[in-house]
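Lab meeting tomorrow. Please check the following:
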Amino acid sequence: MPEQEMKHIEGILKEEDIMKLEPEEDETYKKVEACQNCGLCLAVCPILEVLQHESYSGPRSITSELSRTVREFWKAKDVVYFCTQCGRCQEICSKNVPVPKVVSLIRSKLFEQRRDLVPNSFEPMLENLNEYGLAFEPMDKEAKIESAKGRLEMLGLPYVPDKVKSNAEVLYFPGCQADNLLPEIRESAKLVLEKLGADYTLLPDLKCCSLPAILMGDSEMVDKLEKDFLEKVKNLGAKTVVTTCAGCTATLEGIRQRNNADFEVKHIIEYIIEDFGREKFEKLLKNHPEHISVTLHSPCHLDRHVGKYTTDYAEEILEILPNVEIKRLEDPERCCGAGGLLNLYNPQISRVIIKKEIEDIQKSGAQTVVTPCPLCLVQIDQALFKKKAKTEALDYTVFLAKRLYGA
């Protein structure tokens, strides 16, 4: 078909709000037709637990609405932006309908064809991605170093200068939050890698993993960031990309798989168990003077989007730490409510979702709750603070650094 004619047809489709799909997208989209309308997904959706069908009809409505002959994708707008992308609906679905993937697809089409329906609350992050290639405005380099040193001093941890070199075995990818808002995570990962004797490097110019762009539906930005990441890993020659962010882990692994790249992507928890080894790690541990009780919040992007074995690994590491007592949550895989950009789209609902998790954390009696996800950490920490709870929230990698360095 001539290019001019194709553009004319695309213009008509756009005017009529009919979704045009690429073959791969069409394959994903058609999977909604497998939905049996059984309603099992409704029982596990964190949004429905709060809204009780008042203004949200749940993941089942996505499949029932979008399986119609005329693909009026815009009718699902009130559903797709509420989705936290936790993946519990797909996990319980007997037909494995990929609701989170379909939600991302619909958001991308809304962004492309109906920008008027994209939430205004996404704009600041979109501007940051366009200007800096990061979800958050970056700090001045010197200010970032001073901030990192100050945070480490409060934690009783030493500062290690950045390493940037070619042909290191490991590339540490901190992600936007750890690089700009929570430098103690970035610095703690360096300290842990130092203890492991890892041959590692950081990127000379970090860009976002692309997850925020995926969640907002900016496919053009997603492609740009994906190409940037692949090119940088190739130029550095790293064999393994190590992360400390659950969202980065799942997203970068998706990039690796789509491009059949010859490197691995692992959260630092996976790296410790699979690459360094439990026995070797245990030998690094010295008796810590402080006894502490800890509970684990397992993030959705690791537990469901990467694999449940990550939760097992996280618990396994905690179990071998001297003087650490684990107190398990009733539902350690509960969504914290911050995912899917819900914390930007509807912060009120996001805050209500976390309440049950906070109740569970307090019920456990643990002194500290740890999570291997910066997004979950901020959500939990803010909720604990508002409730004036005595429980401390710490990033998992920061907690490891404190135990390894006796802080």
Remarks:
- The CA atoms of residues 159 and 191 lie 8 Å apart.
- The beta strands are 170-173, 200-202, 240-243, 264-267, 292-296, 324-326, 368-371, 392-395.
- Residues 3-118 form a domain with the Fumarate Reductase Iron-sulfur Protein; Chain B, domain 2 fold (CATH 1.10.1060.10).
